[in-house]
Design goal:
126 residues, 3-stranded antiparallel beta sheet, alpha+beta, OB fold (Dihydrolipoamide Acetyltransferase, E2P), 5 helices
């Protein structure tokens, strides 16, 4: 399932933009590839992240994977529920499994991300 109202990266992160704030998480495809998520390491609020740079880590029963920022900006919220319930990444990746919210520093970066159709095409080839 690929929600049409989101933007995507080739690294399987998604972005939901609301004004100057972007909510970021990993896609359902990524969650299935990872297997059962057991730990999520996310940046603290106030930290600045750069587009396509590592901003955190997801640890699953299969592997440890870096998370890459789809956009640059300041982290304004972190999903604290993931500390005690990392499995939300698997069960609800586009909802309760969100990871961070960022105040976007350059909204033009969003335009360079994949739309739902392009992301579906990317994952169909995987």
């Amino acid at each position: 399932m690929v929600p049409a109202d989101l933007h995507y990266t080739k690294d399987h992160e998604w972005v939901r933009v609301d004004g100057d704030t972007a909510t970021i998480g990993v896609t359902d495809f990524a969650a299935h590839q990872l297997g059962d998520v057991v730990f999520v390491d996310l940046p603290a609020t106030g930290r600045t992240i750069e587009q396509f740079a590592t901003f955190g880590v997801v640890e699953s029963v299969k592997a440890v994977s870096d998370l890459y920022a789809p956009v640059s900006g300041e982290v304004v919220a972190v999903n604290g529920d993931l500390a005690s319930q990392p499995e939300l990444v698997n069960s609800d990746p586009f909802g309760k499994g969100w990871m961070i919210r960022v105040r976007v520093s350059d909204s033009a970066q969003v335009d360079g991300l994949l739309d739902a159709a392009a992301y579906e095409h990317l994952t169909a080839e995987a």
